[in-house]
From TrEMBL:
Disordered: annotated span: 38-78
Transmembrane segments: none
Gene: rpsU
HAMAP family per UniProt: Ribosomal_bS21
Name under which the protein is recorded: Small ribosomal subunit protein bS21
Length: 78
């Protein structure tokens, strides 16, 4: 991963780096690797994540097809 520093603006480069790392899932992976995870716990977690992904994809598909209503957007108070 590479980030260019322009005009000695290190703060902006750090923000860009953090955003890239967040998108890649590096922070989540580092958090998971802090402690040992038993193989059985890992299987349970991965299966739960797969179920969650599947449900989310099914929900989005149904929203696109108009079978269920899309979530209402919050309107900013004036």
């Amino acid at each position: 991963m590479q980030v260019l520093v322009r005009d000695n603006n290190v703060d902006q480069a750090l923000r860009v780096l953090k955003k890239k790392m967040q998108r890649e899932g590096l922070f989540r992976e580092m958090k998971e690797r802090r402690a040992y995870e038993k193989p059985s716990e890992r299987r349970v977690r991965e299966k739960a994540q797969a179920i969650s992904r599947h449900r989310k994809a099914a929900r989005k598909k149904m929203q696109r097809e108009g079978l269920i209503a899309a979530p209402k957007r919050a309107v900013a108070a004036r």
